[in-house]
């Protein structure tokens, strides 16, 4: 893709159009939200929560995430050109973005996420993004939750009818007017020390908890 085309696709006018399109498209979903109240009560009482999802499922959350804009929540997004578009949409939704990933700018982004999460009480993290492998939770979310003293809350999107892409994660797009369920898991306490074995134990527990909801993991 040419630089000119890339600049056009990441321009404010295109990002605003994409944001409005997503909101209109997702408004057709017959949406049900489950088990949201426990973790929201925790945040409202002064606690901190890190919402964790699979890359495959994040489209289904975009419109509904506007609900949480009053918390000034934060989200880590890669520095790629695709990430530029996603970050623009997220910011229009009311989220603060920390730009970086495990391959580029990850340390500074993680520090920004910790700072924002401590200040505002709510953040979200794509546990296997931006490039996978699918179904493998990376340790970053465990370190993030631990250092911000936040509870981990797995979140899932389930669509009755959807299109699946031939991407590394089998990314899915719910079809218009499909029944879509956003389901939150129970809160999970993050580890309190730096021991690698302890960190890995928590990472594996989160992976085992979340993986059954991953479609076509292989």
What does this entry look like structurally?
The chain is of the alpha/beta class and 218 residues long. It has a single domain (3-213), classed as Glycerol-3-phosphate (1)-acyltransferase (3-Layer(aba) Sandwich), CATH 3.40.1130. The protein is 37% helix and 20% strand. It is built from seven helices and nine strands, in the order ααβαββαβαβαββββα. A seven-stranded mixed sheet has the order 1-9-6-2-5-3-4, with helices on both faces. Strands 7-8 form a two-stranded antiparallel ribbon. A hairpin with a 7-residue loop joins β7 and β8. The longest helix has 15 residues, at 12-26. The model has no long low-confidence stretch (mean pLDDT 92).
CATH topology: Glycerol-3-phosphate (1)-acyltransferase
Which class in CATH terms? Alpha Beta
Count of DSSP helices?
7
CATH architectural name: 3-Layer(aba) Sandwich
> Rg to the nearest angstrom?
17 Å
**What's the average pLDDT?**
92
As a percent range, the share of strand residues is 15-25%
Q: Which oligomerization state do the chains in this entry correspond to? A: single chain
Instruction: Flag low-confidence runs.
Output: none
State the separation between the terminal residues, measured CA to CA. 31 Å
